[in-house]
Amino acid sequence: xxxxxxxxxxxxxxxxxxxxxxxxxxxxxxxxxxxxxxxxxxxxxxxxxxxxxxxxxxxxxxxxxxxxxxxxxxxxxxxxxxxxxxxxxxxxxxxxxxxxxxxxxxxxxxxxxxxxxxxxxxxxxxxxxxxxxxxxxxxxxxxxxxxxxxxxxxxxxxxxxxxxxxxxxxxxxxxxxxxxxxxxxxxxxxxxxxxxxxxxxxxxxxxxxxxxxxxxxxxxxxxxxxxxxxxxxxxxxxxxxxxxxxxxxxxxxxxxxxxxxxxxxxxxxxxxxxxxxxxxxxxxxxxxxxxxxxxxxxxxxxxxxxxxxxxxxxxxxxxxxxxxxxxxxxxxxxxxxxxxxxxxxxxxxxxxxxxxxxxxxxxxxxxxxxxxxxxxxx
Amino acid sequence: xxxxxxxxxxxxxxxxxxxxxxxxxxxxxxxxxxxxxxxxxxxxxxxxxxxxxxxxxxxxxxxxxxxxxxxxxxxxxxxxxxxxxxxxxxxxxxxxxxxxxxxxxxxxxxxxxxxxxxxxxxxxxxxxxxxxxxxxxxxxxxxxxxxxxxxxxxxxxxxxxxxxxxxxxxxxxxxxxxxxxxxxxxxxxxxxxxxxxxxxxxxxxxxxxxxxxxxxxxxxxxxxxxxxxxxxxxxxxxxxxxxxxxxxxxxxxxxxxxxxxxxxxxxxxxxxxxxxxxxxxxxxxxxxxxxxxxxxxxxxxxxxxxxxxxxxxxxxxxxxxxxxxxxxxxxxxxxxxxxxxxxxxxxxxxxxxxxxxxxxxxxxxxxxxxxxxxxxxxxxxxxxxxxxxxxxxxxxxxxxxxxxxxxxxxxxxxxxxxxxxxxxxxxxxxxxxxxxxxxxxxxxxxxxxxxxxxxxxxxxxxxxxxxxxxxxxxxxxxxxxxxxxxxxxxxxxxxxxxxxxxxxxxxxxxxxxxxxxxxxxxxxxxxxxxx
Lengths: 378, 531
Prior knowledge:
The structure holds two protein chains of two kinds.
Chain A (H helix, E strand, L loop, with lengths): L1 H12 L1 H11 L15 E8 L3 E6 L4 E7 L9 E3 L5 E6 L4 E6 L5 E6 L5 E4 L5 E2 L5 E11 L4 E3 L3 E6 L10 E4 L7 E3 L5 E4 L3 E4 L6 E5 L14 E2 L11 E10 L11 E10 L5 E8 L4 E7 L2 E9 L1 E6 L4 E7 L6 E4 L5 E4 L4 E5 L6 E6 L9 E6 L1
Antiparallel strand pairs in A: 1-2, 1-30, 2-3, 4-5, 5-6, 6-7, 8-10, 9-10, 10-11, 10-12, 12-13, 14-15, 15-16, 16-17, 18-19, 19-20, 20-21, 22-23, 23-24, 24-25, 26-27, 27-28, 28-29
Chain B lengths: L2 H21 L9 H8 L20 E3 L1 H15 L5 H14 L4 H4 L3 H4 L11 H4 L8 H5 L1 E3 L1 H14 L14 H16 L5 H8 L7 E9 L3 E13 L2 E10 L4 E11 L3 E8 L2 E9 L5 E8 L2 E12 L3 E5 L2 E3 L3 E8 L6 E2 L4 E10 L2 E8 L6 E7 L2 E10 L4 E5 L2 E5 L12 E2 L1 E6 L12 E6 L2 E6 L2 H5 L2 H4 L1 E3 L4 E4 L16 E11 L2 E12 L10
Parallel strand pairs in B: 12-18, 20-28
Antiparallel strand pairs in B: 1-2, 3-4, 3-10, 4-5, 5-6, 6-7, 7-8, 8-9, 9-10, 11-13, 13-16, 14-17, 15-16, 17-18, 19-22, 21-26, 22-23, 24-27, 25-26, 27-28
């Protein structure tokens, strides 16, 4: 089975795939990284259509390995384990989670969330505890009855990552609707990005507010923030980052002439759970995602039709680079190389200071909405 | 399997099936509608035991024939329903006859049934973001449900489109709570299942639409036409149809086909007109004296125009419908079997009758230089019509119709053809106050114009939309650009664009201009019976 997958992958990725084929033939052993570098070496993880996980070496910017993901392409969510060895992928139209050993494409974890007449969807929500022992999803179940549907309550599902290929939740706790991206913190809690930003204790289901968004009371002079939590980001700076858009009415509410348009963000330190929230930049163009410079928390980079660099203390845009096409997502290595991806079948590589394009990685399929995460392989 | 492709193919095939389903002539009705409901629908739905609403869910909804068609398609697509073509026809007919909408209930939203492009809706703020950010107002405005059923519809949305509560304009509010507890109850008030209009219409005697109809209409490329539509009932609510007439340029028009009537007034006909398949979506008036709606090409529903049919002899419209003081011009009086002397009103002389056909009379008319500005009644023999011809001094303003056009890129080897957009210029005289743009302006009807395009705004200019988005011809027909990435454009964008359409009418050496917005959009990949 593994062999078949690897051959298919090789056919798709051409020369890069040949490497994968050779690697795949070698029997891997526990602790053996199968030719890959450990010690925190950074590998970029992303998913392309029809449904493949790609492992990219950030030193060579080549695909090391492509793993066939079972099921129909979902949203392309990827969550690396803390040791960088396992990539958990959301698949099958938001329903299943599959964990791959990125050194050999072996599937080491699988959870099918739907059951009987209940369809369970998890929208982007996929997180792993900081010790790697537990995996979390937010489940949105609906039940199909004979002539109607039933909308069931969402819940946090906790899985044991060692549960193997037929994993079932070991604990569940009720949560709010509309939760998308989630992330685990050193406090043991899991951040839930929904109407507000909450933290849930996955041991007992206790929920506390980290910061308010929909329920943020700032009076009539501000519109409720609109946070687009579609891509999980932040491992490069050990943070959870959620941008939002808002309007400040300097005149009457709705008076666009006097209004100010702002980007804001909620940013959570994964070590402490501390939150920064507020406006960071005047809205001048659309940014789909922001990331923080791992060496300077005051500097953010944003991607969409442009790659941009911002000083958030000064609320200033430092540089803007027009992209060749629209990209949704971006990430950055510890040496500050910027990777811009999503939408199409290439990852664009950029210099962090000039933002000039310095390279490109051709992918065998479209990334669409897929995540682009960094695994620090130990 | 590529899921998106299969979905597209399925829905597109279903949409085509709709046309076929409703128009298959001479269908036999092996089973009654109620029997099909019992045999097919009760596999999942249940009998409630309540004679007022005997079948779970089904009995608490009323829809147009297209609405029921979409319901059946959804049952096939999502729930494994298998229907023969005959069963489907039987069900649509039965359900829209017994649980349809009254004429008055459809009046506001007929454009959706008619597949009329370029409609900008005025939507209740309560629905703008909750419903109309995905759907036309017509989509839900052409349904009637009990409150429980509107709530079930919300639930279905949550199950079938689970990401909808995360969309822009959903994720900033508690969408599900609002939909269930605020929107559904309001829908149940505004679009109530129990409505006096339907109760009355259900009991009313329905018109038989047999006979000869005097027809006036418009088709892009061809222009205004007149025709006699002859209908003969072949069985209850089924008709054979013949349409013979002329375009305004004198060329002939002829076609035959069949029609079916749903809910007692919803006329759906398919004809082959001059070798092209066309479809008529008309509403018969409650007394059966008139039918109005739209006729369009089956394969290109944007290529079509209004159609008005008056039962028997009648003057339906004039082309052109205005004459300038002192001008001599050819005027076509559109109407069936018009006999006798032509009178065009005070100050307008019929110089000569140029031709008489079953569907029209063409005359050479001359307005005196001193003829008063205003509307004239027109008569041919004993057939009269009020306010048909405008006498005017000069064109003071031009309005482009539609004000907001929509075209879609296509072709280029892709699966979807280009969707064109047709514009017409409507001219106005200033009226007694001498100022155009006021209530007393005199509508002079459609007039020939010179057509041109310009970028709609700074972004459109910067992106060179004028160069890429498409072209407009001398008849006001806009043809959009090819679909797909265009390496010549910034970021290899496709050929979408925002343009302004300009119609110029020459008036005494001066140019009078009118403008309309045109959005050149991406292809629409899913074709629905009601968008």
